[in-house]
């Protein structure tokens, strides 16, 4: 698997949230390969940055 792709469990650990939280969310953007969901690390980083900007307002 490419290093910039994360499974849902890896993405949850990276973000510090539960897997069920990610299943319920529309963001951060995910895509499917077969039956599995994957996240790009750059999309997760952008999601973190956006949340930080919103919290700073």
Description:
The chain has 57 residues and is of the alpha+beta class. It has one domain (5-56). It contains 3 helices and 3 strands; from the N terminus they run E-H-H-E-E-H. It has helices at residues 8-15, 19-24, 41-56, and strands spanning 5-7, 31-33, 36-40. The chain has a 3-stranded antiparallel beta sheet. The radius of gyration is 11 Å and the shape is globular.
Helix content: 40-55%
- Overall pLDDT, averaged? 89
SSE class: alpha+beta
Query: How many E-type strands?
Result: 3
Query: What is the domain tally?
Result: 1
User: Describe the biggest sheet?
Assistant: 3 strands, antiparallel
Biggest sheet, spatial arrangement of strands: 1-3-2
Which stretches are poorly predicted, pLDDT < 50 over at least 5 residues? none
Describe the structure concisely.
This protein has 57 residues and is an alpha+beta fold. The protein contains three helices and three strands. The protein has a three-stranded antiparallel beta sheet.
Any chance you could write out the topology, listing elements then pairs?
Elements: E1 5-7, H1 8-15, H2 19-24, E2 31-33, E3 36-40, H3 41-56
Features of the shown structure:
57 residues, globular, 53% helix, alpha+beta
